[in-house]
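WARN  no MSA supplied for this record, continuing single-sequence
INFO  ligand: pyridoxal-5'-phosphate
INFO  echoing inputs
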Amino acid sequence: MEHLSVRLTSLSSSATLAMSQKSNELKAQGVDVINLSVGEPDFFTPDPIKAAAKKAIDNNFSFYSPVPGFLDLRKAIVAKLKRENGLDYTVDQIIVSNGAKQSICNTLLCLVDPGDEVIVPAPYWVSYVEMVKLAEGMNVILPAGIDQNFKITPEQLEAAITPKTKALILCTPSNPTGSVYSHDELEALADVLARHPQVVVISDEIYEHINYVGRHASIASFPVLRDRVAVINGVSKAYAMTGWRIGFLAAPLWLARAASKLQGQY
Ligand SMILES: Cc1ncc(COP(=O)(O)O)c(C=O)c1O
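INFO  complex generated
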């Protein structure tokens, strides 16, 4: 007899990992397969990163790390956000996690109460909706087809927001579509959100550097949203470090503190 919680039984298995496994099985049978499931870069972790990690092991960086991450790493993230994104954060606003995936889940668990609505533009990365379910929230799927370049419009966003809307998950550059929101498109969405102060934006920017369209813009750059945007990023995609499991959340202090509190327990 199984004794699983409703929370677990209502969760779907990762479709991405299932596809990846299927592809590995076919490869093992000698089938020529191009695996487009998991987002694995087609290069290796750069040598200076590998060398630094080896040095860190030799220097006995093998004890429990601080819950929000090592201070030097958080300082480097603050510097990156300023240099590459023009965003101002303090180290207290940065929480390092085991990949962007954990950062997103932490954020949802900090924000969402049972029955709260979370807007997810579709097509979406499969884990978002499962994480919303874990947090006992309600997914509100906003379809954005090829006719609109897979991007939601301000009108769609306005129509989807209700008093129960807690968060919008925005992924730019997008997995799976590759669409990139321009600065002006983000500004138009920010103008809508300015009218709805109960909505927090979870801005998944993990694909920032896999962008063949134009300059990356972050919705966190609009002052009107500064105290309610959770920027999610990490090293998996840009530096081919998917297996290293290093991601981060950059957020207003109230949210960063909550994510650290949560992470301190699991
Ligand atoms: C859109 C999106 N966000 C987040 C992640 C998770 O990244 P990480 O490896 O840092 O957990 C992925 C990984 O495939 C992704 O596609």
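The chain has nine helices and seven strands.
INFO  checksum written, moving to next record
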